[in-house]
Amino acid sequence: MDKLFARRSAKTGLAPGALVHIGEQKMKHVRLNLIEYGRETDFSEREISSPIECFPFKDKPTISWLNVDGVHQVQVIEEIGTNLGIHPLVMEDILNTGQRPKIEDFDEYVYIALKMLYWNQDHAEIESEQVSLILGDTYVLSFQEGDEAGKDVFDTVRVRIQGGKSRIVKRGADYLIYSLMDAIVDNYFVILEHMGEQIIDLEEELVTNPKVDTLQFIHNLKRELVFLRKYVWPLREVVSRLEKRETNLFEESTIIYLRDVYDHTIQVIDTIETFREMISGMLDIYLSSVSNKMNEVMKVLTIIATVFIPLTFIAGIYGMNFAYMPELQWRFGYFVVLFIMALIFFAMIVYFRRRRWL
Amino acid sequence: MDKLFARRSAKTGLAPGALVHIGEQKMKHVRLNLIEYGRETDFSEREISSPIECFPFKDKPTISWLNVDGVHQVQVIEEIGTNLGIHPLVMEDILNTGQRPKIEDFDEYVYIALKMLYWNQDHAEIESEQVSLILGDTYVLSFQEGDEAGKDVFDTVRVRIQGGKSRIVKRGADYLIYSLMDAIVDNYFVILEHMGEQIIDLEEELVTNPKVDTLQFIHNLKRELVFLRKYVWPLREVVSRLEKRETNLFEESTIIYLRDVYDHTIQVIDTIETFREMISGMLDIYLSSVSNKMNEVMKVLTIIATVFIPLTFIAGIYGMNFAYMPELQWRFGYFVVLFIMALIFFAMIVYFRRRRWL
Amino acid sequence: MDKLFARRSAKTGLAPGALVHIGEQKMKHVRLNLIEYGRETDFSEREISSPIECFPFKDKPTISWLNVDGVHQVQVIEEIGTNLGIHPLVMEDILNTGQRPKIEDFDEYVYIALKMLYWNQDHAEIESEQVSLILGDTYVLSFQEGDEAGKDVFDTVRVRIQGGKSRIVKRGADYLIYSLMDAIVDNYFVILEHMGEQIIDLEEELVTNPKVDTLQFIHNLKRELVFLRKYVWPLREVVSRLEKRETNLFEESTIIYLRDVYDHTIQVIDTIETFREMISGMLDIYLSSVSNKMNEVMKVLTIIATVFIPLTFIAGIYGMNFAYMPELQWRFGYFVVLFIMALIFFAMIVYFRRRRWL
Amino acid sequence: MDKLFARRSAKTGLAPGALVHIGEQKMKHVRLNLIEYGRETDFSEREISSPIECFPFKDKPTISWLNVDGVHQVQVIEEIGTNLGIHPLVMEDILNTGQRPKIEDFDEYVYIALKMLYWNQDHAEIESEQVSLILGDTYVLSFQEGDEAGKDVFDTVRVRIQGGKSRIVKRGADYLIYSLMDAIVDNYFVILEHMGEQIIDLEEELVTNPKVDTLQFIHNLKRELVFLRKYVWPLREVVSRLEKRETNLFEESTIIYLRDVYDHTIQVIDTIETFREMISGMLDIYLSSVSNKMNEVMKVLTIIATVFIPLTFIAGIYGMNFAYMPELQWRFGYFVVLFIMALIFFAMIVYFRRRRWL
Amino acid sequence: MDKLFARRSAKTGLAPGALVHIGEQKMKHVRLNLIEYGRETDFSEREISSPIECFPFKDKPTISWLNVDGVHQVQVIEEIGTNLGIHPLVMEDILNTGQRPKIEDFDEYVYIALKMLYWNQDHAEIESEQVSLILGDTYVLSFQEGDEAGKDVFDTVRVRIQGGKSRIVKRGADYLIYSLMDAIVDNYFVILEHMGEQIIDLEEELVTNPKVDTLQFIHNLKRELVFLRKYVWPLREVVSRLEKRETNLFEESTIIYLRDVYDHTIQVIDTIETFREMISGMLDIYLSSVSNKMNEVMKVLTIIATVFIPLTFIAGIYGMNFAYMPELQWRFGYFVVLFIMALIFFAMIVYFRRRRWL
Questions:
Q1: What is the reported pTM?
Q2: Which residues 292-351 of B have a C-beta within 8 angstroms of A?
């Protein structure tokens, strides 16, 4: 249900910009993680307990990255937003996890909403998590729904920054936000591989042993693709708008990298469309294999009935009790009838062979 | 029928701009409600009996909002329109409840036609009401078809104005009209949730116990989506044109809010498309579950007929009355035949097992 | 056939601009009707016998409207065209009733081709008539295929001009041509209502009593929609081009009215698309109701056959004439067998109930 | 096969501009026909044996039209092309009969590739021939695949030039090339009429007597439409680009005529689309008439089986040979049983009537 | 699987520009082949063992073409890229064989990714190989996945350069890269011919002897078309962007040749779409031939059952053992019954004839 749409109705009637969390609470406490680095500064990372701790970052020359795990505590988001001069509508969007991937440019900062996707192996379905990114001139904010485990797709970016030699450290906040987007899109390929494996399994099952469940399975896959498409299609426009320099927070040299993300997005979309075509082909094969089976069943019925019904009729005739039935008294009447029956039987068999039913 | 199209034929042959009410009369008397407010003025709200009472508002510095419930009394609309210099074609559009969502810019005012939607739980269908909005520099006119109960989606906006602290009070007429549009679009999410629940119910029914009615139910949902789509798709263009500042009645700071309405509209459209895909998937499942059932029925018939027809034939043979049938005189002829029948029976069962029919 | 395409082949090989009538002759004699009016002139209307009579109108200050019923007499069209300096290709288009709705701007005049539609109640189909309009600075020419009855959709416009108080009289030729187009488009709504009623009838029939004819009926409706669409879709572009002021024969104030015609056209197209979706939904329902019926038939067959074939087999066994069949001599053998048969019968019934076949 | 695609593989690996004929050789010798005319010059037409004869035409004030029948002799094309300064790629295109309709502007001349279509009545299929046109300032070249008969669609143009009074003679080379294109497009309507007649025949057959062949026939028509579409769609763009004056070889006054060709092209496309919709509707009708027939067959089987199987069972019971079966001894036992059978029979009939199976 | 998508997941989490080979290793050692030529220089071709050997080419006036067979050795690509100042993302793209056809312009050089396609006759499927092309001002780099055999589509280009008289030798690097692209696109026609032959075989099989495998075969073809389309569609945009002179590395005179490649690409796409339509038509024919067969089977069953079940019933009646059954004692009872049975039999036959079942 949640995948279909977020239950927004609770918000109906509230003023725009009214801050209400829409979605599921996935962890208990909000976790704030602040990373600071720079070309000439050392890397520092710390968990902070209150947003207030981190606001000096605005005036520092370093690049600051504040990652927020958990968006269900309205006051945390509000405090951060108010201090950094974020528009109320953006705060509202961060809190609403049913957001569509989008980008909004407010000159001083850019707001980007994305979907992080995970593959749930148990239910063979996609799980989505909303990620909000805000890019200022020297800072990046990232908001995740989070979970208790606390492991996420951004870990690889963190490791690269820690190392200190990565390109990220030598560049500005725009390159950091690109790295985060790249990490998210790269992760989509993992989802696609999981789905691809399922499709290949399905294809094999379809050829060797199609079952009634197969249809349900095909439809589940199709449905997951519908959701995947819903999450990825708008991303195309998001990256395209960034790449076309609609905002001035991105440096020229970072644009080339955005083009790379754009290419990946297109590739993901291409693969989704290919999957869709393959699945619809599988549906056709399934349905026609069902009707082929039906045909076979009907053939067996027809052959048996067509062969034996006339024979039974003949037996029926000589089972009649008429007082005067000359054949009954013939010496070889019985054997003649048996012989005729055998003749009919083989004639039928030959007929079916001719029609390729046997 | 009314949902399919308004019965316009009554108007055929009349001059353009001829004022005729097209649609259903939903309430007895037209109700006029005037709200006045401003940054430095107190809030006032009153029911007025004749449009004339309210015309001084044009020269006041306050923001005036005249809400008209009921568009079936032509002379009321005409009086308002004539006094405010509204183009006859706009008056015609207000009276014609079969309008398509649209926007028309007349420099001094903007005319916006929208659809307010309600969910009729009893018939599981969408009910629509036409809402016409006119934005002047200091005034807003809203025309609803209304109903006797008099409760509507604009109530929350009224409450926010009354409170006096809302952002609405601090801003101009453009923000008020945005708030009204926002209230209408927000309400669409309620419709979507109702439909979403129906879809989930349907899916469950489809898996556990598909019935002949299920098809009718699926088609009803599909049909409601067709109407919903028809109402919402044009809205996208309406908001997009407003957001692109084609009119100068909107301030820069309100444009950001319009972008928010635009996002919501896109989200509604996205969800409608997802629903459509799901419903068409459900139709496939239903149809193939019907043909699977057929297959099962055919299998049962085939198994029974295939097993017993040959056996009956054998019984028929020994029911013949030939004078000379040697087997009949054998001591254990009867038991040998019974045994052969049992053999055939089990051979058949094994055969069906092999073909996975049992 | 004529609806599918006009038999143009007769024209193959002729020079472009060669004047040949393509289409059906719908009336015997061409009828010419000239109306003259103006702000300060009295209204005059007269039937004229030869086009020559009317040519002084070019130099008069009044607005002249020449309506031609019947386009099968080449020399009439040619005479009018040559006198008014109409391009030969336009004359060719007027004569060819298989024209697509289109607009062509020749600076000094604009040529507009439209389709007038009538609903033929007897055959439940749309009949189309080609209407050509030419707008000069002070005159309007209209060419209809006409019919003997001589009643047409322009009558209402004539009445409004006669009245003398209509907006038409106060405005130029551009407003007159708008009025004619408006009359034609308004008439499309009548067609839509007729089709809508048929769709509603069909839906009811589909639920209560679907017949083999129903399919044919659905397809007829679908086909009429194909034609309707073919006639209306290009109109959208025609009006849109007029509205975008591609020609300078239209005054600013008339443009607003054209926007209204444009809206109506979009509404007609919208409704056509909705009808199409509904009809394709009806086709689905029809087809699956057919297969549901088949299912029921199969079930009845299966139940009867499955119940009685085994019973008949048992009866067959005891109908065998073996000399030694111990059961036959039992005192209650007959009743025991009857009882077993009854047992099998009820077991079957229970089984079918369980599978929900009964 | 040739219609599917030209066998280009022979060319793989050759340099671009390498002159190789791709396609079928349709006539033995290439035929060169040169027509010269002008406003003040007399018309002259002659067959020439070598292209060299005709090259003085470049410096003459007259309009020269060189028509080449047969494109399989590479050296002829090469000689013409080299002398007139035609780009090697254009020569390659002329030789390759699998070309797509296209236009290429080389400033000094324009190259246009088109498809001439013929209706082969015997196989009920379209035959296509590639036509290449080159427009210089005072000359026109046309290349056809030709056939032995030597009759073509351009004959009517030739006749009009000969007559000397045609508009062609009074105008430049651009009007001549327009006339040739017009002749080709006009001919498409003949194809459409042939197909339209086939569709009407099919529809009738579908209603009165659908056969297994009907499906094959429907698919053949569908396939021809696929090819027709492939040939005509790109033409739209070709004419549109000419009409938008992308080349300066066309005079203003000829543009209006090109608009006419454009309209015809759109009309052809429109009709193709209508045909497609009708054919897909016919496919639906065919398929559902097949399943309706199946239904009827099943009903007959079910009625017969359902009526007689229980009756046969009853007869079977009284055919058993139990020593003690009281009914058998009853005086009217036989008649009572016959009466019961009749009762059951009529009850069944009534039941089927109720279900509308009879 | 590999065709579905490259297994990128191994790369997830790596920094952008990290050089990792994605794809299958198709040959053992990377092979480097350097060709140098010029208008006034002699042609030279040599295999080199290390990229370092070839870097002087940058300063030479000749055109240098370095072809790399095998992209699985990261350090080779890196060495070449670093020396020529190629962007790390481009190197990444060269190594990733799951690339989508694309073009990227870096002012000093242009990167083009393409797909070389081969037809695998054994599996009746398309095999793809990624080709990366880099165009500098005086050099061209080409990267292929390569295979042990070392034969490729570029051989024809090499031969033309060797000959020394080809247009390639007289022109710049831009013409060389065009020649390579042309060779690749030309090769697509070979693929299309192979598929076309398969389609024609299929069509014949469908008419003469459709089998259960046929469906699988149709779907395989459909699937190959999906892949083919995926490879060719983006190429259209690639060539279109080149042709529109978005890069300044192409000379005016080469643009005309690019237009030719563009035309070929469109032709390939056109043919793919035609194939798709034909295959979907074949699917329809297959499915309806399956249901036609079913119909025939059902008819045979129905005819036999309908004829013999009533007859068997009559025989059953006279097999009853009632003590008093007057008919049994009649002299000709038996023959009368036989006659009645024959009557019924022929009546049935006539009935089936009438219904066209026989």
A1: 0.84
A2: 292, 294-295, 298-299, 301-302, 305-306, 309-310, 312-313, 316-317, 319-325
